[in-house]
Design brief:
By secondary structure, the protein is an alpha/beta fold. It is built from ten helices and ten strands. β9 and β10 form a beta hairpin.
Length: 343
């Protein structure tokens, strides 16, 4: 059981972009939701109650939409600081400057995450014209404030070949952290048909690039967020199954059902925002501590995994159930980009 429990908290749907791979607007444009201040307070203390019950420490990932567009954004940051709760912000670059970033840092924000989903033409097609250059520019604002800057890339067939150059751009701009995860089919406009071979080849190319950068003293930390990195490193010898492994214990892999919940602006609680239909309750009407041992049980039946349950890497990998659900309609289906043959 991990020390920290993460809450991905979408406080508003308000956003300056309409990204082609956005989960919020994948069904067409709609009126954005935002929590009231009373709802924010109720949700926050519901989360603290959860952590007290289960002996965990809360960690918040504040996002949206773009969380800075919420009218009570700064008031929430003051509450987090008052309660000494750690947090990261995942947002857009458009409203950042040195003063804003400094204020975020003063109120306790540890990291600000931005997205780069392609080189200039691809990224701006996916998100908004001018977004690519703006994002790279604002990495400097984040770094100067003392927060850590993170770049996240959502990988699909549309930008697969551009990922190595995205890494170069992030490093050159001075990003503290770089990571990527896969696009989850959600009715958007992106092609999610990467083959297992294509994805493994990408991991191999990126691994070589990460290693070269690290050997040259690069300051960027390359986070191997996608769980199929575990399979790749198992095959290449970087990951070995520990000798003291205990049967039935889950040590890593997907955090869904272990140390994560998502809360939406209308109060809906999701097992994972990337898993379609994974609503398990409401932070405004239900006690989160009760949801965790009742509704969330259906996401912790590890023997139901069609492929992973028969794999020796089950305690550490299990691929991405969100991608499996988005592709095949089943949380426990095989990860469509997993290349391992399991008997």
């Amino acid at each position: 059981m991990k020390q920290y429990f993460s809450f991905q908290w979408h406080i508003t749907d308000e956003c300056d972009q309409r990204c082609r791979h956005c989960y919020i607007y994948s069904g067409g444009d709609k009126k954005p939701n935002s929590m009231t201040w009373r709802q924010i307070e109720d949700t926050f203390y519901n989360c603290l109650d959860f952590c007290e019950v289960y002996g965990r420490l809360p960690y918040f990932y504040l996002t949206g939409g773009d969380p800075i567009l919420h009218p009570d954004f700064w008031r929430l940051l003051e509450l987090l600081k008052e309660q000494s709760v750690r947090f990261t912000i995942m947002g857009n670059p458009f409203h950042l400057n040195d003063r804003i970033c400094g204020r975020m840092r003063d109120l306790g924000c540890e990291k600000y995450q931005l997205s780069i989903d392609g080189l200039r033409e691809t990224h701006d097609w996916l998100r908004k014209k001018g977004s690519f250059d703006c994002t790279l520019e604002k990495i400097g604002c984040i770094n100067r404030s003392g927060m850590r800057s993170a770049i996240m890339t959502t990988v699909s067939k549309a930008n697969l070949s551009e990922v190595p150059e995205i890494i170069d751009a992030a490093v050159e701009a001075g990003a503290d952290i770089f990571a990527f995860s896969r696009y989850v089919p959600s009715g958007g406009e992106l092609d999610a048909s990467m083959t297992p071979h294509e994805y493994r080849e990408l991991l191999e190319i990126c691994d070589k690039k990460f290693t070269e950068y690290e050997a040259n003293g690069c300051r960027t930390y390359f986070s191997k967020k996608d769980h199929l990195w575990t399979l790749y490193e198992y095959e290449t010898g970087k990951f070995k199954i520990p000798a003291d492994t205990v049967e039935g214990v889950i040590y890593g892999g997907c955090n869904c059902g272990n140390c994560h919940l998502t809360i939406l602006p209308n109060g809906d609680v999701y097992a994972c925002r990337r898993v379609a239909g994974s609503r398990v309750g409401s932070a405004l009407t239900d006690r989160l501590a009760d949801i965790w041992v009742c509704e969330m049980e259906r996401y912790r039946d590890y023997e139901k995994f069609a492929k992973c349950s028969r794999c020796e890497l089950k305690p550490w990998c299990r691929g991405c159930p969100a991608v499996a659900k988005g592709t095949n309609g089943d949380f426990y289906a095989a990860d469509p980009q997993c290349w391992k043959e399991v008997g």
